[in-house]
Amino acid sequence: QVSLGDGDFGKGGPDTMAVSPDGQTIAVYDVYSDPRRVNFYANGESAGAVNLKTPPMAIALTDSREVYALYQTRPTSTVLHLALSGEKLETLSIDGSLDPAGLFWAGSDLYVLAGVGGTEDAGYLPVLEDGAPVTFADPRAAIEQDYPLSSGHAALEKDQAGGLLLTLSGGDAAPTAVHLTLPPELAGAGGALEGSAFKGLPVILFFSSPEAGPALGCFVAVDVNGGQTKAATVRFDWRVPGGGFAIGPDAVYVMRPDFATGMQLLRVPFK
């Protein structure tokens, strides 16, 4: 159960959500509720809530249902760390000029997507390492270009022939790379790294690209070493405001507005 309301693009619902690393809990920021709050859901049922008055730009969730909430402000952006009880455990500060715009939980590390305000060094800035805050004399120099995974990093780029090349690196092993082949219905679709599943496999989201209306989204978990892939396919409708998605350990969770029933939360397993 979530609240619907009137947003900038018409009637809609929540568009900020997260899934715990173990896949047991879903968190949704209920922006139109009174009071505003982060709702928790487990096994298809309500599992509590934490009041959070100011809407965050992004949230992350731990297995113990502790919440990290990102606020982009200048000169200093912040990440609030909240306990299940609602108690504020800590406030992490980030250079606001980096325009942090997303939170990524990888293992026991927390990253923000930083440098997205027109800078050339956009990437991922570690905020927590093994659960402990980290600071840098020059945060911009600490931004990592590759997508953070629980077991390393991943990068997606075009090869010389215009195909997609996924490279996985981490630990002492040499980087491994694989060329990706898209199914016919996604030929020519753009792709971007959007998370990880199955304890660390990189997940890429491919979109068919109509200018408006429904689009096919295909989340693909890639095992670079084994050469196997699993996919979760979703249809998104850009004409309907609201919604969002989060990647769990073995499925993608999608909020989809349905004005006959309110909001639908779909669980789309990787197959």
Which descriptors would you attach to this protein?
271 residues; mainly beta; four-stranded antiparallel β-sheet; 25 strands
Blueprint (SSEs and pairs):
Blueprint: E1 5-7, E2 10-12, E3 17-19, E4 26-30, E5 37-42, E6 45-51, E7 58-61, E8 67-71, E9 76-82, E10 88-95, E11 102-106, E12 109-114, E13 123-129, E14 132-133, E15 147-149, E16 152-158, E17 164-170, E18 173-180, E19 190-197, E20 201-207, E21 214-222, E22 229-237, E23 244-247, E24 251-258, E25 262-269
Antiparallel strand pairs: 1-2, 3-4, 4-5, 5-6, 7-8, 8-9, 9-10, 11-12, 12-13, 13-14, 15-16, 16-17, 17-18, 19-20, 20-21, 21-22, 23-24, 24-25
Folded structure, characterized:
By secondary structure, the protein is mainly β. The chain is 0% helix and 55% strand. It contains no helices and 25 strands. The protein has a 4-stranded antiparallel β-sheet with strand order 3-4-5-6, with no helix packed on it. It has a 4-stranded antiparallel β-sheet with strand order 7-8-9-10, with no helix packed on it. Strands 11-12-13-14 form a 4-stranded antiparallel β-sheet, with no helix packed on it. The model has no long low-confidence stretch (mean pLDDT 86).
Could you provide a short overview of the structure?
By secondary structure, this protein is mainly beta. 0% of the residues lie in helices and 55% in strands.
